[in-house]
Amino acid sequence: FPLVSKCGYIRKVVAEASDADLSFIEIPDIPGGAEAFELAARFCYGINFEISTDNIAMLRCVAEHLEMTEDYAVGNLVSRAEAYINEVALKSLSGSVSVLHQCEKLNPMAEKVKLINRCIDAVAYVACQESQFSSSGITDSQESLSSSASHHRSAIVDWWAEDLTLLRIDIFQRVLMAMKARGFNQSALGPVLMLYAQKSLRGL
Description:
Blueprint: H1 2-6, H2 8-16, H3 33-44, H4 56-65, H5 77-87, H6 93-103, H7 109-112, H8 115-130, H9 147-164, H10 169-181, H11 189-200
Helix pairs in contact: 3-4, 4-5, 6-8, 8-10, 9-11
């Protein structure tokens, strides 16, 4: 049975069962619930499904819970999920934010596999690499920008903020702290905070 051979958790439960005709296994606290388990089962049986930034956090967490590691099968779900996370999801700001948003409902497992910290670090890195607002990239000549250039910068700030408004406030705060630690210019955070407040805190 592929589920038994690829899932260390299930393999252990079956091995320890006193009932030789075991036909029912209870798996408590599955990250992502029934949807996550269904995808893990489809992976085990070789049934194709699309891996995306919308489900990769769930796949990584359920794979950890079920112990779907290389110890039980080559190219198992943990390593497949890690490859997608590192090679695709965390390569862009939008992908990192999307995965981070999904992690909010997958704790404590998302914290255990350090996925939240990795997403936060990726967001901070991309922001400071691509934005004009990194303090390390500001020169004296850039301090006297024209009004049109300032307007362009404001549009960039709004774009970053638009992505970040998806996040829960405690995660949003952690992202801002990571951005500041990487040298993101604090004076550029004002518009980000204002847009987040307008879109995410309305009605609170």
